[in-house]
Amino acid sequence: MDVKTCATCGEAKDLTEFRKAPTCRDGLTTSCKTCLNAAYRAWYAANAEKKHAAASASYQARKDKINAHRRAQRAEQKQATASE
Ligand SMILES: [Zn+2]
Questions:
Q1: Which of 15, 35, 55, 72 could cysteine-pair with 31, CB 3.0–4.6 Å?
Q2: CA of 34 to the centre of ligand 1 (A)
């Protein structure tokens, strides 16, 4: 069984204890799932409010653009089907 040492807790754990990370050299995160979860929970507790506000603002900003794009796509599809 392959193991990898977690950069955060320093424990050697099974590869299944690490999340996939395509951008990392070995394709896995440097910290184990347990450490990532703990770090995320701590980060989330500190940033939940901020994150929520930012996500909501960026969604609102994108929404109109996305809707317009979808409408255009639908219109195009309709035209394509009509001309067949
Ligand atoms: Zn760890």
A1: 35
A2: 6
